[in-house]
Design goal:
The chain has about 280 residues and is an alpha/beta fold. It has one domain (about 1-280): Alpha-Beta Barrel (TIM Barrel), CATH 3.20.20.70. It has 10 helices and 11 strands.
Length: about 280
């Protein structure tokens, strides 16, 4: 069944667990992700991001994600992550996405507020929810997001006082915060600012989102959730898992794409389930 962020994140915030967002650019990824959620009987957020559109155009991704979500036995949020342009965000809403992240984090603060407030009003008319970003999550070298590697990420961390003003003025349903994570694969272990997460969580009622989740330790995840994180974004881990399954199969003599499909789906399922078990921590 299709849900939105309020349906799945408000209970998560109340009960101190997190819901995972897992991006899917093809059917194999979508099937593996939703299978894991159905078997565990927990909600899931699945979608794509604007930087991933070269690998799966928005309309084509919608054609398989929307039906998969509609027939799922658990709540499934169809989320458009890191929407960079107003036009693509509107297209996603029209295609049936139930949630939008409008990323205006590199704009000035006032411009970020203005643009996200406008889209939030429109999305709510569709029955969809909106995630905003305040501060700026960095990009590791080689990440899907590109070349925006931050030498001093602390300069872009989310300010707790500004976070309260931001959610009050924009009306967003979830807030992505910058607290020490980055997109893509980490070369060195990240150092999360857990005290900042706690301070932001205590100052607003809006569920908090942790981007750049792939590569964090289990303890990092558990502590971040206990401090107030309700949504965690994962892509690199499941993307690599699918590729490694194909690599191993090819090395073992598999020559047909149809033989690779179930192997990739199984690998995505296993990687997704592992993260879900960690995020839920027996609290559903």
């Amino acid at each position: 069944m299709i849900a939105n962020l309020n349906d799945v994140l408000l209970p998560a915030r109340k009960n101190k667990y997190a819901v995972g967002l897992f991006n899917a650019v093809n059917m194999e990824m979508g099937r593996g992700i939703i299978r894991a959620a159905e078997e565990m009987q927990i909600p899931v957020i699945v979608g794509t991001a604007e930087v991933l559109l070269p690998y799966g155009p928005l309309d084509e991704v919608a054609w398989f994600l929307v039906p998969l979500a509609q027939k799922a036995k658990v709540p499934v949020v169809i989320h458009y992550d890191h929407g960079l342009t107003f036009e693509k965000c509107i297209q996603a809403l029209k295609l049936g996405f139930s949630s939008i992240m409008y990323d205006c984090s590199t704009d000035t603060y006032e411009e970020n507020v203005r643009k996200v407030k406008e889209l939030t009003y429109i999305a709510h008319q569709f029955g969809a929810t909106v995630e905003g970003e305040l501060g700026h999550v960095g990009d590791n070298e080689g990440s899907a997001e590109g070349k925006n590697h931050l030498e001093d990420p602390t300069a872009f961390y989310t300010d707790p006082e500004q976070a309260r003003d931001y959610v009050d003025r924009t009306g967003v349903d979830a807030l992505a915060i910058a607290v020490g994570t980055a997109h893509g694969a980490y070369k060195l272990a990240p150092k999360l600012d857990f005290a900042r997460i706690e301070k932001i969580a205590s100052s607003i009622n809006t569920p908090l989102v942790l981007h750049g989740g792939s590569g964090l330790s289990d303890e990092d995840f558990k502590r971040a959730i206990s401090c107030g994180i309700s949504k965690i974004n994962i892509f690199t881990d499941i993307n690599v898992a699918g590729a490694m399954a194909c690599k191993k199969a090819l090395e073992n003599g598999v020559t047909c794409s149809t033989d690779l499909i179930p192997l990739q789906t199984e690998a995505i399922y296993q990687a997704t389930r592992k993260k879900m078990e960690l995020f839920v921590c027996d609290r559903i």
